[in-house]
Structure formats: structure tokens, C-alpha cells
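Throughout our pipeline, every protein is held as a single compact record rather than as scattered files. The record that follows is passed on verbatim for readers who wish to inspect the format.
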Amino acid sequence: MYFSRIRRPISSALSEGNLPIQAGNIYEEHKFIWGLFPFDKEAERDFLYRRFDAEGFQQFFVVSNRKPLESLNSWEIAIKSYKPKIVIGTQLHFNLRVNPVVTKMPEGPGSKKRKREDVYMDALAKNKTVPEAERSTNAEILQACAFQWLSERSEQNGFAVSKGSVIVEGYQRFEITTKKDTNKITMGVIDYSGILTVTDSGLFNRTLCQGLGKSKSFGCGLMMIKKV
């Protein structure tokens, strides 16, 4: 596995006549990340990435099975081997963006038909069925459903979290439209930060390399960590 930082100053991109990849245009980001690797029409997605623009730089962090190209126009590419070895009990700061969904059976139990629902949109809809005087605020709903989604998946991914150690930073919705497809796909993402405790090193290392949740091709699922 490889961990890479790919960045370029926004000012230099503009001076060279290259427009920066617009923040929020996750289909263009997706295409750019694919272009970091040697062309292989048989290749399946074998990477995770997260965009972190900072201090005048467009910046992407990428975890991948294949080694990225070592030069790409005006981009700076720093690559290192990625072999996380984290023992049980380690506490880590984490930063995570996920596309949290719940799977439903719209035709009832036993149905083969499945439908994915955005966790936050689903929670908002449920809140509307509660008597008005008892309804939670949207902010309360986001905090509750986001933490529940993460907590329910923590054990199987090798870590533990508590409410006091997790910050739900926000929720955004993105539309994805490819050039070949006029249908728009809407995707909701939630950003987290906080502190976790590793409970199973094997499962946690798998999570670091394979990601968490859906939409991993579109900047979700990569858990960024550092020691407390």
C-alpha cells in the first residue's frame, strides 16, 4: 500500500492557464484521482482519497494499492509506503468523511428489493412523524443519527468511540453528473473528527486500507489518523 500527498499552489495553476478543480465537483476529483495511476483499462478502484485544500494549495491525500505516477504537470507528488501497525488500546485523533446510508426493504421483510436511504434524510423524515411539540431540531437529529451510524459500525471496523469523543462537523449534499449520463446522483456526506480507541488491530488496519462506508470513489471513506 502507498500513502500519497498530491498538491499544487492554486496561484501557479491559474498562472499556467489551468483552472483548479472546483471544490464540490467530486466527479472531476474522481477523474483526476484515476489519472494519477498508470493507465489500465482492466483496473478496478483500488484507492481511497480525501481532499484537504489548505494555505493556498489544492491538496489530496490518497491511500492506494498501486503506486501513483511520480510526476504530473504542475502537481507535487510525495509518496511513501503505507504499512500501518497499530496495537490494541492505541488512542488516535481521526478525521473522516463518509456517505452514510441505511438499506431498506420497501416491499417488506423478505423482499429481494433493496433501497439505500441517506441516514440524515431518513432521520429527518422520521422526525416529521413525531408530534410537533416533541420534535428535535435538525442539528440534534444530525448529531444523533451521525453518531449512531458511526458507533454501530465501530466494533466491526476495529475501534470504539464515545459521544464525548466525537464531533460531527457537518453535512453536505453533492450532485454527481457524468458527461455520458444526464441523470444526477445525489449523495449526502457527513464529516467527523474526534478520538477513537483501537479494539482490534487487524480489523482497524483493514479499515485504514479499505475505507468505511459507501462512495469511496468520490472522496469518502478514508480515515485520517494521528496519535493522541
